Amino acid sequence: MKIRSMLWGLLAAGATASPALAQTPYYEGKTITVLVAQAAGGGTDLFMRAMAPFMRKYIPGSPNIIVQNLSGGGTVRAMNMLAEGTKADGLTVAYGPWEPISQALKMPEFRADYTKFGVFGAISDQRISVIRSDVPPGIKVPEDLGKVTEPFVQAGSTPTGLITLLGSMSLDLLEVPHKVVTGYKGGGDTYGALLQNQAQFNTISYSTLVTRYRDFTDTGIGIAAYAYCYKDENGKFARFDNAPNIPCLSEVYQKIHGKEPSGTLWELLNWFLDLNGRVTFVGLTPAGVPQEALDALAAGFDGASKDPELQELFLKQTGEPTRYVSIDQAKRTVQLLSDIPPDYIALLKKYVEAGQQ
Predict the structure, then answer these.
(1) Neighbours of 335 (CB within 10 A)
(2) Which fold has domain 31-124+279-341?
């Protein structure tokens, strides 16, 4: 009788414990919609469409994933949708380039708050500026920019966008005359403008340089002018390992002006690069999404980003592997928006206003 009672007790305990052990994953049987803040066919869109099946592989419950494009106003439309028109259930999320300057300058059309969103993944990028070689008096090497006397056209996206601001700040730092034209809708649009000589200068990713822009540089139509390098562990600006022949912006400045760059603009440019370069693309959820959902999305993004098959695919398509950023680093970067020096704000406003003209 004692043995029988013990067996019944164990069975009862097992029956009580089994639901917890066999708890259904949050996303099992569900569908996730990823809002991509870029038009179909763009680099961000293609990235997420390649990423989606791998994320499904690593998200517990293997949910279906639908990629939906929601372009407009840079990322403003997608971010407003995430903040105002999306349930906090983790079934609608967003991925795309983040434009923190819209929030930093309190632009009225931007109604979201990046610091309140959940972060489930982030990717960094290497940015390089290119210029047509027939810009008078002729650009054969990067330091020839110092000889330019007539303004050329810099292609931009939105006035608050990464490529617009990096290009404008760097050219002003070098004291090169130029005119900013914004409104280009994507990489194909700006590339077409450079090929047709409607614009002469643009800022792109390294992967774009070695894919879409390969003929542009190989045929001599243009050159890679400089890279937006990061400081290494010794506090020195280091050339990109995969592009050792492309000088850092600081090197070009020194060749043109004979000294190291300094001053508020230089400090702002590097602050902006830390803010919007080390974390260039980010995956976000609405505020208040259950932690279980956020953890599952993060596991999916992390696993997909490191998947050897996907890395091989990106290496073939873009010439480089995915540059995954840890969640902690992404969160620290987003929090930079909480404390911005006033002189940076004042200077940023001038650049955004110039891009709006």
Answers:
(1) 11
(2) D-Maltodextrin-Binding Protein; domain 2 (3.40.190)
Please name the residues in contact with 78: beta carbons below 8 A apart, sequence gap of 6 or more: 35, 36, 37, 70, 71, 72, 94, 96
Whether 129 contacts 243, CB under 8 Å? no
pLDDT at 88 (0 to 100): 95
**CA neighbours within 13 Å on the CB side: how many for 189?**
15
**CB within 8 A of 11, min separation 6: which ones?**
none
pLDDT digit string, tens, across residues 150-188: 999 999 888 888 889 999 999 999 999 999 999 887 778
Give the per-residue pLDDT at 85: 86
**Edge-to-edge, what's the strand order for the sheet holding 324-325?**
64-69, 31-36, 92-97, 281-285, 118-123, 324-325
Instruction: For 127-276, give the CATH class.
Output: alpha beta
Q: Where does the chain hold its CATH 3.40.190.150 domain(s)?
A: 31-124+279-341
Distance between CA atoms of residues 158 and 324, nearest Å: 25
Torsion sign (Cα): 341, 342, 345, 347: negative
